[in-house]
Design brief:
The protein is an alpha/beta fold and 502 residues long. It has 2 domains: 2-200, Class I glutamine amidotransferase (GATase) domain (Rossmann fold), CATH 3.40.50; 206-253 and 272-398 and 415-494, Alpha-Beta Barrel (TIM Barrel), CATH 3.20.20. The strands form 6 sheets. An 8-stranded parallel beta barrel has the order 12-13-16-17-18-19-24-25, surrounded by 4 helices. The chain has a 7-stranded mixed beta sheet with strand order 3-2-4-5-1-8-9. Strand 10 (205-207) and strand 11 form a beta hairpin. Helix 11 packs parallel to helix 12 (342-355), helix 12 packs parallel to helix 13 (371-380) and helix 15 (446-455) packs across helix 17 (472-487). It is elongated. The N and C termini lie far apart (51 Å). The model has no long low-confidence stretch (mean pLDDT 95).
Protein backbone atom coordinates (compact mmCIF):
# COMPACT_ATOMS: atom_id res chain seq x y z
CA UNK A 1 0.00 0.00 0.00
CA UNK A 2 1.22 3.49 -0.86
CA UNK A 3 0.09 6.70 0.85
CA UNK A 4 1.18 10.00 -0.71
CA UNK A 5 0.77 13.15 1.36
CA UNK A 6 1.87 16.74 1.61
CA UNK A 7 3.59 17.11 4.97
CA UNK A 8 3.61 13.81 6.83
CA UNK A 9 0.70 12.40 8.83
CA UNK A 10 -0.25 15.87 10.05
CA UNK A 11 -3.98 15.38 10.46
CA UNK A 12 -6.44 13.18 12.28
CA UNK A 13 -7.69 11.84 8.92
CA UNK A 14 -4.25 10.75 7.72
CA UNK A 15 -3.38 9.09 11.02
CA UNK A 16 -6.66 7.16 10.91
CA UNK A 17 -6.03 6.14 7.30
CA UNK A 18 -2.48 4.95 8.02
CA UNK A 19 -3.76 2.94 11.00
CA UNK A 20 -5.96 0.88 8.64
CA UNK A 21 -3.00 -0.30 6.57
CA UNK A 22 -0.37 -1.14 9.18
CA UNK A 23 -1.30 -4.86 9.13
CA UNK A 24 0.25 -5.75 12.47
CA UNK A 25 3.60 -4.03 11.82
CA UNK A 26 5.61 -3.18 14.93
CA UNK A 27 8.51 -1.21 13.46
CA UNK A 28 8.84 1.65 10.99
CA UNK A 29 11.78 3.18 9.14
CA UNK A 30 11.87 6.95 8.69
CA UNK A 31 14.01 7.76 5.64
CA UNK A 32 15.86 11.07 6.12
CA UNK A 33 17.91 11.04 2.90
CA UNK A 34 15.93 13.81 1.17
CA UNK A 35 17.50 16.46 3.42
CA UNK A 36 21.20 16.20 2.50
CA UNK A 37 22.22 19.00 4.86
CA UNK A 38 20.52 17.97 8.11
CA UNK A 39 19.44 14.32 7.66
CA UNK A 40 18.53 13.00 11.14
CA UNK A 41 18.67 16.56 12.53
CA UNK A 42 15.86 17.72 10.25
CA UNK A 43 13.32 19.46 12.46
CA UNK A 44 10.48 17.30 11.07
CA UNK A 45 12.05 14.10 12.45
CA UNK A 46 10.73 14.55 15.99
CA UNK A 47 7.18 15.13 14.78
CA UNK A 48 7.25 12.22 12.33
CA UNK A 49 8.51 9.86 15.04
CA UNK A 50 5.67 10.96 17.34
CA UNK A 51 3.12 10.36 14.60
CA UNK A 52 4.46 6.86 13.97
CA UNK A 53 4.60 6.16 17.72
CA UNK A 54 0.94 7.17 17.96
CA UNK A 55 0.27 4.36 15.48
CA UNK A 56 2.05 1.95 17.84
CA UNK A 57 5.26 1.77 15.81
CA UNK A 58 8.84 1.78 17.05
CA UNK A 59 10.80 3.96 14.63
CA UNK A 60 14.36 3.76 13.35
CA UNK A 61 16.00 6.43 11.19
CA UNK A 62 17.34 5.28 7.83
CA UNK A 63 19.58 6.91 5.22
CA UNK A 64 20.18 5.46 1.75
CA UNK A 65 23.59 7.17 1.76
CA UNK A 66 24.72 5.30 4.87
CA UNK A 67 22.84 1.98 5.03
CA UNK A 68 22.08 -0.84 2.55
CA UNK A 69 18.67 -0.48 0.92
CA UNK A 70 17.85 -4.12 1.69
CA UNK A 71 17.67 -3.27 5.39
CA UNK A 72 14.35 -1.55 4.73
CA UNK A 73 12.79 -4.95 4.06
CA UNK A 74 12.90 -5.55 7.83
CA UNK A 75 10.19 -2.93 8.34
CA UNK A 76 6.46 -3.18 7.76
CA UNK A 77 6.13 0.59 7.41
CA UNK A 78 8.55 2.92 5.61
CA UNK A 79 8.12 6.70 5.47
CA UNK A 80 10.06 8.82 2.99
CA UNK A 81 10.42 12.34 4.39
CA UNK A 82 10.30 15.52 2.35
CA UNK A 83 13.24 17.66 1.30
CA UNK A 84 15.05 17.62 -2.04
CA UNK A 85 13.42 15.24 -4.58
CA UNK A 86 16.40 15.43 -6.97
CA UNK A 87 18.83 14.36 -4.27
CA UNK A 88 16.53 11.64 -2.92
CA UNK A 89 15.89 10.18 -6.38
CA UNK A 90 19.58 10.10 -7.22
CA UNK A 91 20.43 8.44 -3.91
CA UNK A 92 17.74 5.78 -4.36
CA UNK A 93 19.16 4.97 -7.80
CA UNK A 94 22.78 4.89 -6.69
CA UNK A 95 22.00 2.51 -3.83
CA UNK A 96 19.59 0.20 -5.67
CA UNK A 97 16.67 1.26 -3.53
CA UNK A 98 13.93 1.28 -6.18
CA UNK A 99 13.18 -2.47 -6.14
CA UNK A 100 13.22 -2.49 -2.34
CA UNK A 101 10.67 0.29 -2.15
CA UNK A 102 8.46 -1.51 -4.68
CA UNK A 103 8.52 -4.63 -2.52
CA UNK A 104 7.55 -2.62 0.55
CA UNK A 105 4.65 -1.06 -1.34
CA UNK A 106 3.39 -4.56 -2.21
CA UNK A 107 3.78 -6.14 1.24
CA UNK A 108 3.58 -3.28 3.75
CA UNK A 109 2.82 0.43 3.96
CA UNK A 110 4.98 2.92 2.06
CA UNK A 111 4.36 6.56 3.02
CA UNK A 112 5.85 9.38 0.98
CA UNK A 113 5.37 13.06 1.63
CA UNK A 114 6.45 16.10 -0.36
CA UNK A 115 9.77 15.07 -1.97
CA UNK A 116 9.25 11.56 -0.60
CA UNK A 117 5.97 11.34 -2.50
CA UNK A 118 7.24 12.91 -5.74
CA UNK A 119 9.97 10.30 -6.25
CA UNK A 120 7.39 7.50 -6.08
CA UNK A 121 5.57 8.96 -9.09
CA UNK A 122 6.55 8.46 -12.72
CA UNK A 123 8.45 11.77 -12.84
CA UNK A 124 9.58 14.60 -10.59
CA UNK A 125 9.47 17.07 -13.50
CA UNK A 126 6.80 19.19 -11.79
CA UNK A 127 9.48 20.36 -9.36
CA UNK A 128 11.22 22.11 -12.26
CA UNK A 129 8.33 24.60 -12.32
CA UNK A 130 8.68 25.58 -8.69
CA UNK A 131 12.09 24.76 -7.24
CA UNK A 132 14.59 24.12 -10.07
CA UNK A 133 17.36 25.47 -7.82
CA UNK A 134 17.18 22.25 -5.79
CA UNK A 135 18.83 20.40 -8.67
CA UNK A 136 22.31 21.46 -7.62
CA UNK A 137 23.67 18.04 -8.59
CA UNK A 138 22.56 18.46 -12.22
CA UNK A 139 20.28 15.43 -12.38
CA UNK A 140 19.11 15.08 -15.99
CA UNK A 141 16.90 11.97 -15.83
CA UNK A 142 13.83 13.02 -13.84
CA UNK A 143 12.06 9.66 -14.16
CA UNK A 144 10.64 8.55 -10.82
CA UNK A 145 9.98 5.05 -9.48
CA UNK A 146 6.67 4.85 -11.33
CA UNK A 147 4.59 3.32 -8.55
CA UNK A 148 1.66 5.42 -9.70
CA UNK A 149 0.49 7.70 -12.48
CA UNK A 150 -0.87 10.10 -9.86
CA UNK A 151 1.08 13.35 -9.62
CA UNK A 152 0.68 15.60 -6.60
CA UNK A 153 1.54 19.20 -5.87
CA UNK A 154 2.29 19.26 -2.12
CA UNK A 155 1.79 22.28 0.18
CA UNK A 156 -0.60 23.73 -2.40
CA UNK A 157 -2.25 26.54 -0.38
CA UNK A 158 1.03 27.49 1.28
CA UNK A 159 2.73 27.58 -2.11
CA UNK A 160 -0.10 29.70 -3.50
CA UNK A 161 0.30 32.24 -0.69
CA UNK A 162 4.04 32.49 -1.27
CA UNK A 163 3.87 32.50 -5.07
CA UNK A 164 0.75 33.91 -6.65
CA UNK A 165 1.55 32.05 -9.90
CA UNK A 166 1.32 28.56 -8.39
CA UNK A 167 -2.00 27.67 -9.99
CA UNK A 168 -0.99 29.15 -13.35
CA UNK A 169 2.25 27.15 -13.38
CA UNK A 170 0.39 23.98 -12.48
CA UNK A 171 -2.19 24.40 -15.23
CA UNK A 172 0.54 25.07 -17.78
CA UNK A 173 2.33 21.88 -16.68
CA UNK A 174 -0.92 19.89 -17.00
CA UNK A 175 -1.54 21.29 -20.49
CA UNK A 176 1.97 20.56 -21.74
CA UNK A 177 2.07 17.04 -20.29
CA UNK A 178 -1.60 16.13 -20.82
CA UNK A 179 -2.04 15.09 -17.20
CA UNK A 180 -3.91 16.06 -14.05
CA UNK A 181 -2.05 17.16 -10.94
CA UNK A 182 -3.69 16.57 -7.57
CA UNK A 183 -3.32 19.67 -5.42
CA UNK A 184 -2.72 18.65 -1.80
CA UNK A 185 -2.73 20.85 1.26
CA UNK A 186 -0.83 19.86 4.39
CA UNK A 187 -2.87 17.22 6.18
CA UNK A 188 -4.32 15.79 2.96
CA UNK A 189 -3.21 12.69 1.07
CA UNK A 190 -4.04 10.07 -1.54
CA UNK A 191 -4.16 6.30 -1.03
CA UNK A 192 -3.11 4.20 -4.01
CA UNK A 193 -5.57 1.33 -3.91
CA UNK A 194 -7.18 -0.16 -7.04
CA UNK A 195 -8.22 3.39 -7.78
CA UNK A 196 -6.47 6.38 -6.16
CA UNK A 197 -8.56 7.75 -3.29
CA UNK A 198 -8.04 11.22 -1.89
CA UNK A 199 -7.96 11.71 1.87
CA UNK A 200 -9.54 15.11 2.35
CA UNK A 201 -9.76 17.24 5.47
CA UNK A 202 -13.49 16.90 5.96
CA UNK A 203 -13.30 18.75 9.29
CA UNK A 204 -11.11 21.66 8.22
CA UNK A 205 -12.26 25.18 9.06
CA UNK A 206 -11.09 28.70 8.29
CA UNK A 207 -10.90 31.44 10.90
CA UNK A 208 -9.74 34.92 9.88
CA UNK A 209 -7.97 33.55 6.82
CA UNK A 210 -6.15 30.83 8.77
CA UNK A 211 -6.87 27.22 7.83
CA UNK A 212 -7.15 24.67 10.65
CA UNK A 213 -7.13 20.96 9.76
CA UNK A 214 -9.96 20.47 12.25
CA UNK A 215 -11.94 22.76 14.59
CA UNK A 216 -10.37 21.65 17.88
CA UNK A 217 -8.01 24.17 19.47
CA UNK A 218 -6.45 23.66 22.89
CA UNK A 219 -7.61 26.60 25.02
CA UNK A 220 -5.11 29.00 26.55
CA UNK A 221 -4.13 28.26 30.12
CA UNK A 222 -5.01 24.56 30.00
CA UNK A 223 -2.32 23.28 27.65
CA UNK A 224 0.76 25.27 28.59
CA UNK A 225 2.94 25.38 25.48
CA UNK A 226 2.03 21.80 24.59
CA UNK A 227 5.17 19.97 25.72
CA UNK A 228 3.49 17.77 28.35
CA UNK A 229 0.65 16.72 26.06
CA UNK A 230 3.13 16.22 23.23
CA UNK A 231 4.49 13.28 25.21
CA UNK A 232 1.10 11.56 24.88
CA UNK A 233 0.23 12.07 21.21
CA UNK A 234 1.28 14.11 18.15
CA UNK A 235 -0.03 17.65 18.50
CA UNK A 236 -0.86 17.61 14.79
CA UNK A 237 -4.04 15.84 15.92
CA UNK A 238 -5.24 19.26 17.06
CA UNK A 239 -6.34 22.01 14.74
CA UNK A 240 -4.31 24.44 16.83
CA UNK A 241 -2.96 25.44 20.22
CA UNK A 242 -3.76 28.68 21.97
CA UNK A 243 -0.69 29.08 24.13
CA UNK A 244 -0.54 30.01 27.78
CA UNK A 245 -1.19 33.74 28.16
CA UNK A 246 1.95 35.71 27.30
CA UNK A 247 2.93 39.09 28.73
CA UNK A 248 5.70 41.53 27.94
CA UNK A 249 7.67 40.48 31.02
CA UNK A 250 7.81 37.26 33.01
CA UNK A 251 5.04 36.91 35.61
CA UNK A 252 5.06 34.64 38.68
CA UNK A 253 1.26 34.55 38.90
CA UNK A 254 -0.84 34.61 42.06
CA UNK A 255 0.19 32.98 45.35
CA UNK A 256 -1.31 29.55 46.15
CA UNK A 257 -3.76 28.05 46.70
CA UNK A 258 -4.98 29.06 43.26
CA UNK A 259 -6.87 26.03 41.91
CA UNK A 260 -9.79 24.08 43.38
CA UNK A 261 -12.46 21.69 42.19
CA UNK A 262 -16.12 22.62 42.22
CA UNK A 263 -19.28 20.73 41.19
CA UNK A 264 -19.29 20.57 37.41
CA UNK A 265 -15.89 22.17 36.96
CA UNK A 266 -13.03 23.98 38.64
CA UNK A 267 -11.97 27.40 39.86
CA UNK A 268 -8.58 28.85 39.04
CA UNK A 269 -6.77 32.07 39.85
CA UNK A 270 -3.33 31.29 38.40
CA UNK A 271 -2.87 34.94 37.51
CA UNK A 272 -1.25 34.65 34.07
CA UNK A 273 1.97 33.03 35.24
CA UNK A 274 4.26 32.88 32.19
CA UNK A 275 7.93 33.27 31.19
CA UNK A 276 7.42 36.45 29.12
CA UNK A 277 7.27 36.99 25.39
CA UNK A 278 11.04 36.99 24.75
CA UNK A 279 11.45 33.58 26.40
CA UNK A 280 8.40 32.30 24.50
CA UNK A 281 9.87 33.38 21.16
CA UNK A 282 13.32 31.98 21.88
CA UNK A 283 12.54 28.76 23.74
CA UNK A 284 8.95 27.67 23.13
CA UNK A 285 8.03 28.84 19.64
CA UNK A 286 10.76 26.90 17.77
CA UNK A 287 9.53 23.68 19.38
CA UNK A 288 5.89 24.49 18.69
CA UNK A 289 6.67 25.18 15.03
CA UNK A 290 7.89 21.60 14.65
CA UNK A 291 4.62 20.07 15.86
CA UNK A 292 2.55 20.51 12.70
CA UNK A 293 -0.36 22.47 14.18
CA UNK A 294 -1.53 26.10 14.15
CA UNK A 295 -0.07 28.36 16.82
CA UNK A 296 -2.18 31.04 18.49
CA UNK A 297 -0.39 33.44 20.84
CA UNK A 298 -2.67 34.49 23.68
CA UNK A 299 -1.52 37.99 24.68
CA UNK A 300 -2.27 39.75 27.98
CA UNK A 301 -1.04 42.91 29.64
CA UNK A 302 -1.52 45.54 32.34
CA UNK A 303 -1.68 48.51 29.97
CA UNK A 304 -2.39 49.13 26.28
CA UNK A 305 1.34 49.72 25.83
CA UNK A 306 2.06 46.24 27.22
CA UNK A 307 -0.31 44.62 24.75
CA UNK A 308 1.06 46.58 21.80
CA UNK A 309 4.70 45.93 22.62
CA UNK A 310 4.03 42.21 22.99
CA UNK A 311 2.21 41.85 19.66
CA UNK A 312 4.95 43.83 17.90
CA UNK A 313 7.48 41.27 19.09
CA UNK A 314 5.28 38.51 17.64
CA UNK A 315 4.77 40.13 14.25
CA UNK A 316 7.79 38.58 12.56
CA UNK A 317 7.45 35.12 14.13
CA UNK A 318 5.76 31.93 12.91
CA UNK A 319 2.70 32.55 15.12
CA UNK A 320 -0.43 32.08 12.99
CA UNK A 321 -2.79 34.26 15.01
CA UNK A 322 -2.93 36.50 18.07
CA UNK A 323 -5.65 36.05 20.67
CA UNK A 324 -6.15 39.25 22.65
CA UNK A 325 -6.90 38.31 26.25
CA UNK A 326 -9.01 41.13 27.67
CA UNK A 327 -11.10 38.80 29.81
CA UNK A 328 -8.88 37.23 32.48
CA UNK A 329 -10.69 37.78 35.82
CA UNK A 330 -7.74 36.81 38.03
CA UNK A 331 -5.36 39.77 37.79
CA UNK A 332 -5.42 43.11 39.60
CA UNK A 333 -4.49 45.13 36.51
CA UNK A 334 -5.34 44.73 32.82
CA UNK A 335 -7.20 41.66 31.60
CA UNK A 336 -10.91 41.94 32.29
CA UNK A 337 -10.59 45.64 33.11
CA UNK A 338 -10.46 46.26 29.36
CA UNK A 339 -13.21 43.80 28.52
CA UNK A 340 -16.29 44.69 30.55
CA UNK A 341 -17.48 47.74 28.60
CA UNK A 342 -17.99 48.19 24.89
CA UNK A 343 -15.88 51.34 25.01
CA UNK A 344 -13.03 49.48 26.71
CA UNK A 345 -13.17 46.61 24.21
CA UNK A 346 -13.22 49.00 21.27
CA UNK A 347 -10.35 51.10 22.61
CA UNK A 348 -7.90 48.30 23.40
CA UNK A 349 -8.75 46.36 20.21
CA UNK A 350 -8.33 49.43 18.01
CA UNK A 351 -4.98 50.26 19.60
CA UNK A 352 -3.61 46.72 19.30
CA UNK A 353 -4.88 46.45 15.73
CA UNK A 354 -2.56 49.31 14.74
CA UNK A 355 0.46 47.30 15.93
CA UNK A 356 -0.57 43.73 15.04
CA UNK A 357 0.29 42.28 11.62
CA UNK A 358 -1.21 38.88 12.44
CA UNK A 359 -4.88 37.89 12.27
CA UNK A 360 -6.36 39.25 15.51
CA UNK A 361 -8.92 37.40 17.63
CA UNK A 362 -10.36 38.98 20.79
CA UNK A 363 -11.22 36.72 23.74
CA UNK A 364 -14.34 37.99 25.50
CA UNK A 365 -15.51 37.88 29.09
CA UNK A 366 -18.92 36.45 30.09
CA UNK A 367 -18.92 38.72 33.15
CA UNK A 368 -20.93 41.39 31.32
CA UNK A 369 -24.57 42.23 30.70
CA UNK A 370 -24.54 41.66 26.92
CA UNK A 371 -21.52 39.89 25.45
CA UNK A 372 -22.76 40.44 21.90
CA UNK A 373 -22.21 44.18 22.33
CA UNK A 374 -18.59 43.48 23.31
CA UNK A 375 -18.16 41.33 20.22
CA UNK A 376 -19.65 44.05 18.04
CA UNK A 377 -17.25 46.60 19.54
CA UNK A 378 -14.30 44.30 18.81
CA UNK A 379 -15.47 43.81 15.23
CA UNK A 380 -15.86 47.54 14.66
CA UNK A 381 -12.38 48.13 16.07
CA UNK A 382 -10.79 45.77 13.56
CA UNK A 383 -10.84 42.31 15.13
CA UNK A 384 -10.76 39.44 12.62
CA UNK A 385 -12.51 37.01 14.98
CA UNK A 386 -13.76 36.67 18.56
CA UNK A 387 -13.44 33.78 21.02
CA UNK A 388 -15.94 33.26 23.82
CA UNK A 389 -16.46 32.61 26.59
CA UNK A 390 -13.67 33.00 29.08
CA UNK A 391 -14.33 31.91 32.67
CA UNK A 392 -17.14 33.15 34.90
CA UNK A 393 -16.04 34.70 38.20
CA UNK A 394 -16.78 32.34 41.06
CA UNK A 395 -15.92 31.57 44.68
CA UNK A 396 -15.61 28.66 47.15
CA UNK A 397 -15.35 28.96 50.94
CA UNK A 398 -13.75 26.61 53.49
CA UNK A 399 -16.44 26.37 56.18
CA UNK A 400 -13.91 25.42 58.88
CA UNK A 401 -11.53 28.32 58.40
CA UNK A 402 -14.25 30.59 56.94
CA UNK A 403 -11.74 31.71 54.35
CA UNK A 404 -12.05 31.52 50.56
CA UNK A 405 -10.40 28.33 49.31
CA UNK A 406 -8.51 30.35 46.69
CA UNK A 407 -6.00 32.89 48.00
CA UNK A 408 -7.20 35.41 45.40
CA UNK A 409 -10.67 35.08 47.04
CA UNK A 410 -12.35 34.62 43.64
CA UNK A 411 -11.37 32.68 40.56
CA UNK A 412 -12.49 31.75 37.09
CA UNK A 413 -15.08 28.97 36.82
CA UNK A 414 -14.55 26.56 33.93
CA UNK A 415 -15.72 23.09 32.99
CA UNK A 416 -19.02 21.41 32.03
CA UNK A 417 -21.09 23.76 34.20
CA UNK A 418 -20.29 26.58 31.76
CA UNK A 419 -21.66 24.92 28.64
CA UNK A 420 -25.29 26.23 28.71
CA UNK A 421 -24.05 29.78 29.39
CA UNK A 422 -21.43 29.54 26.63
CA UNK A 423 -23.96 28.21 24.12
CA UNK A 424 -26.37 31.02 24.86
CA UNK A 425 -23.67 33.68 24.53
CA UNK A 426 -22.24 32.26 21.30
CA UNK A 427 -25.76 32.08 19.84
CA UNK A 428 -26.50 35.69 20.80
CA UNK A 429 -23.17 36.89 19.42
CA UNK A 430 -23.57 35.03 16.13
CA UNK A 431 -26.67 37.10 15.46
CA UNK A 432 -24.75 40.36 15.89
CA UNK A 433 -21.34 39.96 14.21
CA UNK A 434 -20.13 38.85 10.79
CA UNK A 435 -16.62 37.82 11.86
CA UNK A 436 -15.97 34.17 12.86
CA UNK A 437 -16.62 33.00 16.41
CA UNK A 438 -14.43 30.46 18.19
CA UNK A 439 -16.66 28.89 20.82
CA UNK A 440 -15.43 27.63 24.18
CA UNK A 441 -16.74 26.93 27.63
CA UNK A 442 -17.63 23.49 28.96
CA UNK A 443 -17.01 21.40 25.83
CA UNK A 444 -16.10 17.87 26.90
CA UNK A 445 -17.80 15.55 24.37
CA UNK A 446 -18.40 15.46 20.63
CA UNK A 447 -22.06 16.16 21.28
CA UNK A 448 -21.08 19.36 23.10
CA UNK A 449 -18.89 20.26 20.12
CA UNK A 450 -21.82 19.85 17.71
CA UNK A 451 -24.00 22.01 19.98
CA UNK A 452 -21.40 24.78 19.97
CA UNK A 453 -21.12 24.70 16.19
CA UNK A 454 -24.90 24.82 15.82
CA UNK A 455 -24.98 27.81 18.16
CA UNK A 456 -22.79 29.72 15.71
CA UNK A 457 -19.14 28.80 16.29
CA UNK A 458 -16.80 28.22 13.34
CA UNK A 459 -14.11 26.58 15.48
CA UNK A 460 -13.86 25.35 19.07
CA UNK A 461 -11.53 25.52 22.04
CA UNK A 462 -11.40 22.81 24.68
CA UNK A 463 -9.75 23.30 28.04
CA UNK A 464 -10.74 21.89 31.41
CA UNK A 465 -11.63 18.48 29.98
CA UNK A 466 -7.93 18.05 29.09
CA UNK A 467 -7.10 17.84 32.81
CA UNK A 468 -9.43 14.89 33.40
CA UNK A 469 -8.99 13.25 30.01
CA UNK A 470 -5.90 14.28 27.99
CA UNK A 471 -7.15 12.09 25.14
CA UNK A 472 -10.44 13.96 24.79
CA UNK A 473 -9.41 15.51 21.41
CA UNK A 474 -9.23 12.10 19.72
CA UNK A 475 -12.60 11.06 21.18
CA UNK A 476 -14.26 14.31 20.14
CA UNK A 477 -12.84 14.13 16.60
CA UNK A 478 -13.87 10.50 16.23
CA UNK A 479 -17.40 11.29 17.36
CA UNK A 480 -17.62 14.41 15.23
CA UNK A 481 -16.43 12.54 12.14
CA UNK A 482 -18.93 9.76 12.78
CA UNK A 483 -21.76 12.27 13.19
CA UNK A 484 -20.84 13.96 9.91
CA UNK A 485 -20.89 10.62 8.11
CA UNK A 486 -24.19 9.61 9.70
CA UNK A 487 -25.84 12.92 8.79
CA UNK A 488 -24.31 13.17 5.31
CA UNK A 489 -22.48 16.37 6.26
CA UNK A 490 -19.64 17.22 3.90
CA UNK A 491 -18.34 20.35 5.66
CA UNK A 492 -18.56 21.66 9.20
CA UNK A 493 -19.77 24.94 7.76
CA UNK A 494 -23.10 23.14 7.28
CA UNK A 495 -23.39 22.95 11.07
CA UNK A 496 -22.21 26.46 12.01
CA UNK A 497 -25.19 28.52 13.12
CA UNK A 498 -27.60 25.73 12.18
CA UNK A 499 -29.67 25.83 15.36
CA UNK A 500 -33.41 26.23 14.67
CA UNK A 501 -34.94 28.32 17.47
CA UNK A 502 -38.60 27.80 18.30
Amino acid sequence: MVLLCSNGLTSYELLQEAQKHIKGAKKAALVVTADPEYKEKNYHVERCCKELAYLGLETDLFDFDAQPAEKLLEYGVVELMGGNPYYLLRSIREHNGADVLRQIAEKGLLIGWSAGALVLERTIALTERYLPQLNFMGLEDLTGLGLTDVQILPHYSKQQRQDGNTEEKCRQYEKENQCTVLRLDDGEGVVLEKEPRKIALKMKVHVAGVEFTNPLIAASGTFGFGREYGELYPLSLLGGISCKGITIKERPGNPPPRVTETPGGMLNAVGLQNPGVDHFIKEDLPWLRRQGTRIIANVAGNTPEDYCETVEKLNDTCVDMVELNISCPNVKQGGVQFGTTAEGVFGITQEVRKHCKKPLMVKLSPNVTDISEMALAAERAGADAVSLINTLTGMRIDIRTRRPIIRNNTGGLSGPALLPVALRMVWQTAQKVKIPIVGLGGISTWQNAVEMLLAGATALQIGTVLFTDPYAPQKILEGLGGFMEEQGIKSLSELTGGVRPW
